[in-house]
Amino acid sequence: ELISSLQSKLRTLWEERELVLSEARGCAEQGEELEVTVRELCKPNEFERYMMFIGDLEKVVSLLLCLSSRLARVQNAMRRIDGNTDAEEKQSLNERHKLLSRQREDAKDLKENLDRRERVVSGILAKYLTEQQLQDYRRFVQLKTSLLIEQKDLEEQIKFFEEQLGNLEKSIP
């Protein structure tokens, strides 16, 4: 019964992932259209700034999500520490926790810098785009970010349930 329930949950998550990937493809098309518009209207150096921002947006958000996910896994492992856990493993977990915490703080700084760059790019685009085009740009940036977050969350859930299912199947003779 439990195996069946996990398999059902996984099928639902896989379907959700397909929907999110479909939305991401639509978002990418929207981004390409926006890129053409910005290329046509802006000066080359302004267009380059826009492209750098869009490229860095995905990298920084993905980095932040990845580090947060890894940190959460280490924190979960640290909560499972008991009297039987050897000192070497405890020290390893503590060191990984410190390293990931520092890296996540650095990534947060990158995100703050990216947010400042977004305001600069938005100011540049405001000189060239209509109000509707500017709203489309802002929606695109917001959608791209939320889709990245949603994709990462679904991947984590799928990974978790696949591990649970694998462990359960191994435990049953």
Automatic annotation (TrEMBL):
Q: Tell me, which GO biological process terms does this entry list?
A: actin filament organization
One GO cellular component term:
adherens junction
Q: Where in the cell is it found?
A: Cytoplasm, Cytoskeleton
Do the record's keywords include Ion transport? no
The residues covered by the ASD2 domain are 1-173
Query: Which keywords does the record carry?
Result: Coiled coil, Cytoplasm, Cytoskeleton
The main location class comes to: cytoplasm
Question: Does the keyword section mention Plastid?
Answer: no
- Coiled-coil ranges from the UniProt annotation: 90-120, 144-171
Write one Gene Ontology MF term. actin filament binding
PROSITE patterns documented for this protein: ASD2
Among the Pfam families in the record, one is ASD2
What family does the database annotate? Answer: Belongs to the shroom family.
Q: What is this protein called?
A: SHRM1 protein
Gene this protein is translated from: Shroom1_0
